[in-house]
């Protein structure tokens, strides 16, 4: 029986439930078989690993040789089939962290997209609560996920099947760019993938724009931007703000360190990709959701050929056993093929990156305009 999950997107722990691996890094995992292991107590990390994209549909992966796939053995706990969360995190090159106070495991690409509570059927995905059919459990130093709930949790992140007491996660048949500066082929640098600035952008250049509307009486709190009358309304209520002022505000945080799944900046002094965009836009009374996948559902869709300063740009994070359809990273476009964002790579922290590279062109998913 085939189960398919689409594709394009965790720090200090007292008892380690998962080995943390970064979403955009160097380690290139291609295991033929992954067996459950227990992490040493006290192990921490936000290493930098990954980079290869995943298959699109079941028919694309049926013919793959078994040794191209990752084999995660199942374990029966109380007559329920489970798979090691640690093994899944390593295979998908997710980052992870353990919140000791609440007994929660958080995991995702460049921000905390999933939250799993130990010995509970309660979970969170993309900021929304989800009820699992079986509880996530901890045995020894390892967390285990119910196989019956893998589809509900990770249907956008991987393609897999259950076979002979194993969970088989299929590798991508497509060669992908693993790191930003990897050698590329001619097809990886197609002009159709180039980004372009909108010549009518009122905030182009270094000026303040033709109609800056940021208010001197701004409050410190975030105000709702999306229509409160109809929660299902797709179109946002765009706000007119001084985009250049907002970008300059964001640049004040250059060098602030990145931390996966971090809390609010005033409390932690750290950002992940989505808390950075949330914080900077919040300074201008634009309230954004917590994670990049939620933020990607807001605003008006913009062509990669007509970008304006202040547009949010969304990318998938490549991985050998992941899909290439799921948002895993977000940044703020600042013009001239530059992006302001918080990331573990190529530097660790808030940085300005030249996106006129095949890596960014090929992992780009969409741009959204939420202010003008």
| Name of the CATH first level of the largest domain | Alpha Beta
Main β-sheet: number of strands, strand sense, barrel status? 11 strands, antiparallel
Kindly state the mean pLDDT as a whole number?
Answer: 78
User: Taking Cα atoms only, what radius of gyration do you get, to the nearest Å?
Assistant: 21 Å
* CATH homology superfamily name of the largest domain: endopeptidase domain like (from Nostoc punctiforme)
Distance from first to last alpha carbon: 49 Å
CATH topology of the largest domain: endopeptidase fold (from Nostoc punctiforme)
pLDDT under 50 segments (min length 5)? Answer: 1-66, 208-237
The coarse silhouette is: globular
Structural class: alpha+beta
Portion of residues within helices:
10-25%
Total strands = 17
Number of domains: 2
Write up what this structure looks like.
The protein is an alpha+beta fold and 372 residues long. The chain has 2 domains: 2-169, Copper Amine Oxidase, Chain A, domain 1; 186-369, endopeptidase fold (from Nostoc punctiforme) (Alpha-Beta Complex). Helix content is 13%, strand content 25%. The strands form 2 sheets. Strands 1-10-11-2-3-9-8-7-6-5-4 form an 11-stranded antiparallel sheet. Strands 12-17-13-14-15-16 form a 6-stranded antiparallel sheet. The relative contact order is 0.19. Mean pLDDT is 78; it is low at 1-66 and 208-237.
